[in-house]
Amino acid sequence: MSEELEKEKLNIDGNMEAAEEYDDFEEYDDAQEELEKQQRKLRRKRKKKYRSHGNSSLMRRVIFTLIAAIFASSFLLPTILTFTNSFMSEQEINSNYGVIFNDYSNESENTSMKKTYRSEKVNLKLIPDEVVGRQYSTVLLKSPDYLMKFWNSMILTLPIMVFQIVVALGAAYSFSRFRGRIKEIIFFLYLILMLMPYQVTLVPNYLVSNWLNLLDTRWSIILPGVFAPFSVYLLTKYMRRIPESVIESAKLDGANEWKIFWKIAVPMCKGPIASVAILVFIDYWNMVEQPLIMLSNSSYHPLSVFLSQINNGEIGLAFAVATIYMVPPILIFLYGEDYLVDGIAYSGSVKG
Question: Taking a C-beta distance cutoff of 8 angstroms, is the pair 68, 48 a contact?
Answer without folding.
Answer: no
